[in-house]
Amino acid sequence: MDWTVVQNSLPMFEKGFWLTLRLSFFGIIGAGVLGLICSFIQYFKVPVLRKLVTAYVELSRNTPLLIQLFFLFYGLPQVGIKFSAEVCGIIGIIFLGGSYMAEGFSGGLAGVSKTQIESGLAIGLSRFQLARYVIFPQGLMLSVPAFAANVIFLIKETSIFTVLAIPELTNTALDLIGMYYNTNEYLFMLVVAYAIILIPLSILLTWLEKKVRYGTFGN
Amino acid sequence: MGHSGISIFFEGANFLRLLGGLYVSAKIAFLSIFFGGILGIVLGVLRTLHNPLLRLLLRLYLEFFRIVPTIVLLFLFYYILPQSFNINYKADTVGTIVFSLWMAAEMSDIVRGALISVPMHQVESGKAIGLSTVQLYRYVLVPQSVHLMIPATINLMTRIIKTTSLLLLISVVDVINVGQQIIEANSHRYQDGAFWVYGFIFILYFILCYPLSRLARRLERRGKAGANG
Amino acid sequence: MAEPLLKVEHLKKSYGEKRVLEDISFEVEEGSVVVLLGPSGSGKSTLIRCLNGLEAFQGGTIMFNGETVRPSPKNWRRLRQQIGMVFQSYDLFPNMTVLENILLGAVKVQKRKRDEAARQAMSLLKEVGMEQYANAYPRQLSGGQKQRVAIVRALELNPKLMLFDEVTASLDPEMVRGVLEIILRLAREKMTMIVVTHEMNFARQIGDKILFLEDGKILEETPGRQFFTKPQTERAKSFLESMDF
Q1: How many contacts (CB atoms, under 8 Å) link A and C?
Q2: Whole-number pLDDT of residue A219
Q3: Is residue C127 situated within a structural domain?
Q4: Mutation site, B68, B171, B204, interface A, largest A CB count within 10 A
Q5: Interface confidence (ipTM) of the complex
Q6: Tens digit of each residue's pLDDT (9 = 90 or more) over B185-229
Q7: Would you say residue C224 lies in a domain?
Q8: Where do the TM regions start and end (chain A) (predicted)?
Q9: Cβ-based neighbours of C122, under 8 Å, separated by 6 or more
Q10: FRET pair for B77, CA 20 to 30 Å: which of A21, C70, C149, C168?
Q11: Which residues span the domain enclosing C116?
Q12: What residues of C are in contact with residue A137 (Cβ under 8 Å)?
């Protein structure tokens, strides 16, 4: 392992690192919002939209991100819609992530215990109040583990952006390999870079899970 | 301006070539699922044994495959392995190895999770009538946890199938690669070839994965109902 | 003689093919306590849950406070402010403090002013010995403490009728007594109550009237004193014997 190579390439990896984080951040927020909206639609069984959401979730969960990206970046321009590579990436993450988030939130909402709901009904809460004071707060707490898993999953998926030549981490490494051939060093740094993001994040999310789980076991 | 790209599919052997590419993807997927599945079950059982060193090692193995994105894994194995171990495998084989190991890692977690959820008193009852460790697993633990493993395993299979899409990056001639070639070859004649070809591949993956998803969902629901009996 | 607070006539309920409540009829006078006794699966819980709309019924009528209950979500919502219920699982809302749990119904459903509701809440908490826990979260409380808060939460709405569904069944023995004493006190204060319980001593102390159920039917309706010394039916007799009475 040639450490000078490692040192020299640090600046480039740093840029890729921040880009990966930025793209992940926007993608995850977008996916989270989309997922939340979809899970509400499913929970309240909104008539037409509900079918749409189901179709969307099935479509996005059963197709690879890679294809979604290719379709967005190469296919759409041919029918007139053109996005930059980075925008395609974020759209792809939001599209894919949204369905995973929706499933996570739906699971959480459905997991609120029946007896909690009955307690709410017994003090005269309306359906809306029940949702607002009992089901949503507890449902969101129950969704945290799934949310955590999705966050980690989506950050890893950004590595696929490399196919659109977006200079995130994986692309940086592959680029450098293509130019200087120091495969060992660059792949090592790549793995370390992802570890730096994902290991602390994983620990943080596990801590969050534990802290929040307390609440639902309050009975 | 050129014909509508949808006619690409009626041109020559394009359609068959796409299916051929799909066959390659599917083959690697199912081989990986098969080998990885078996290995995963074994590893999962091993992870529940009371050997801290073994469990730590296997845990590290799992976490490694969880932290590193699959693309990076593919490149690691494709570029570094040949150098370090002086073996040279075809891209297809490398892909199968990587996916098998990944499948095994995730599978071991599913298996372990299901096994440790069997209530302790079931295990104790088994021990009380003198069952050996092997018998415990065979007659008590495995039968009571299998139904938990199935939906998660099917979802894992779906994920593997989807991720085979990355194989083209290590030059496996899979369905997407074939698609790209077709688009290239026909770009002058069909302006919107990319739209149709990628759209089609999109649908192919969907057709492949959706039945599995639904099966998993149905089994999960039935499993829950049975467990609450 | 005053009109009974609650009058149930020919109530019927089925789960699909299975009949779980058969021709249930009884009355509850205001200020009295009715205890539902019976073996497991006799329909006691189902019956009491029908009385505040948590279970639907397919036949018969319920008259509460002179009004025939027309089962609709809106009606039940209104009635539930007058019919309080405490469950076996004392489900307090985990994301709120004790005080917030209690005030939720008063402020958001009955639209009362927060100060007034809080004053009542604190005074009720004091009566059950929980006033220092007003700002605690449910997870910090023991089962018995949670159940006391659950009772206060129901009382805060000033109900005319209180329903208790096996409220001590999930508690450790030491805590059972504390909770039962609270219910006894409510009886002395002439709160109209219907209680489902397995605690025979408690039932004897508190029951003005005993309804003994089996297989969804009322086998016996007997004044409290009499039931425990001289039950009318053989079935009740063997039930009491099996419970060491």
Answers
A1: 84
A2: 33
A3: yes
A4: B68
A5: 0.85
A6: 877 777 777 788 888 888 888 988 899 888 888 887 776 665 443
A7: yes
A8: 20-44, 90-112, 133-155, 186-208
A9: C99, C131, C134
A10: A21
A11: 93-157
A12: 93, 95
pLDDT in tens, B17-66: 878 888 888 888 999 999 999 999 999 888 888 888 888 888 888 888 88
Contact C209, C224 (CB under 8 A): yes
Q: How far apart are CA B229 and CA B202, in angstroms?
A: 41
Phi, then psi, of B90 in degrees rounded to 5: -65, 155
Contacts of B228 (CB under 8 A, 6+ apart): none
Q: How confident is the model at residue C137 (pLDDT cuts 50, 70, 90)?
A: very high
Give the end of a domain, one of C140, C157, C174. C157
Q: Is the dihedral of CA B33, B36, B38, B44 positive or negative?
A: negative
Q: Which of B155, B40, B171, B45 is nearest to A153 (CA)?
A: B155
Q: Do chains B and C touch by CB distance (3+ pairs < 8 Å)?
A: no
Of C76, C91, C139, the CB nearest to A115: C91
Given an 8 Å threshold on Cβ–Cβ distance, is A123 in contact with C105? yes
Give me the helix-helix angle, B52-67 and A183-216, nearest 10°: 110
Tens digit of each residue's pLDDT (9 = 90 or more) over C94-117? 889 999 999 998 999 999 999 999
Looking at the structure of chain C, the number of domains it has is: 2
- In whole angstroms, what is the distance from residue B202 CA to residue B165 CA? 11
CB contact under 8 A, A62 and B162: yes
- What whole-number distance in Å separates Cα of residue A4 and Cα of residue C206? 85
- Are residues C85 and A122 in contact, defined by beta-carbon separation less than 8 angstroms? yes
CATH code for the part of the protein at A3-214: 1.10.3720.10
Q: Report chain A residues whose CB lies below 8 A from the CB of C157.
A: 123-124
Percent of chain A scored above 70 by pLDDT? Answer: 97
Instruction: List residues of A whose CB lies inside 8 A of any B CB.
Output: 58-59, 61-64, 66-68, 70-71, 74-76, 78-79, 152, 156-157, 159-160, 162-163, 170, 173-174, 177, 183-184, 187, 190-191, 194-195, 198-199, 202
